[in-house]
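quick one before i forget lol
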Amino acid sequence: MQGKSVAFHTLGCKLNYSETSTLSRMLEAEGFVKRDFDDNADVYVINTCSVTENADKECRQIVRRIQRRSPESLVVITGCYAQLKPKEIAAIEGVDLVLGAAEKFNLSRHISELAKGDSAKICSCDIDEVKGFNSSFSIHDRTRTFLKVQDGCDYNCSFCTIPLARGHSRSDSVEGVLRNVEELAASGTREIVLTGINLGDFGKGNTGGKKKEEQFLDLIVALDKVARIDRFRISSIEPNLLSNEIIEFVASSRKFMPHFHIPLQSGSNKVLGLMRRRYQRELYADRVSVIKSLMPHCCLGADVIVGFPSEDDDDFQETFNFLHQLDISYLHVFTYSERANTLAVDMQPTVPMQIRHERNKVLRNLSYQKMQYFTAQHSGQTRKVLFESADKNGLMEGFTDNYIKVQTPYRAEWVNQLVDWTL
């Protein structure tokens, strides 16, 4: 395939972005020429998400767009949607190859066997057969990279398809992560964001060659000693897996940033039970309290789902009140979306879509207010900002250690540098 061009498009989470970046580097190493997705290419690869119905729709729309622009190009679909609904995707006009979870990283071999005009080929397997771990990381610029250290999930939340799409929880070893980190350090990366499907489950499914199973705390203790990386962030961690030991370690670390993203999903214990979450709101409030007692300046984000089946007005008000009084900094708000093969899809009563959207808007407004308040609390303070390389209409952006975004006129000498900044 020497000289063939390839373009990638990614839907969904940071984990998908890290995997797409790795797939791109693998193909480039084999002689493929990378193109922007809006350019003409011989092969288009779409790495899909299936957390919401919109992600499914977006995938179909992108394929149609490729068909109109470049009908002779090969179209490959991989990712979560490809694992969950391979036959549905194969039926989309223009799709040539569907790669499930076990075959994603064999992309090059599969492309070499494809010919345009054949019926769509499906390479998939039962998700329980997916055992291996493929490390991956994104490199968009040198400043920040997303490093996958864990994959899959053994939780069975009633709304979630991810265990069906990515399989059982499995991890890299501490030693394997350290090798990737050293490679990233050599490339000039200053900040690494640790990513996974259930990050706090790190170590499960991999003993790292030792008798004792490795744990997430072991990983961050080891990473803290890496000399050439200035910053680490923890992308998202379940509240029941966020131990006091992890919090205390981050509080004492100079490399792990004071920033946690902790999924909540609902502030109603009734709804949390129906969601089959592994905690109640009291534990979540306790985690926030411990963090803030040790790091008052820490940025805290939360995921919340609105419109879950049987969430009535009182349940939503309970969630709003809980979040309003909680010392968190921002929210990622998701409108509940029915997903096939989940327990929640058959739950009654359902919440009308209009009410779901209204609740989403209420919580997004609350999130805006929370972030404004958090930022104002640090006004006048001087904190380190790591500036990124992108020139956005003459401006550059960076983040403080505690995840406050800063914009300033572009200065090339500040790219990938830690700069003292007075907020």
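fyi The mean pLDDT is 91.
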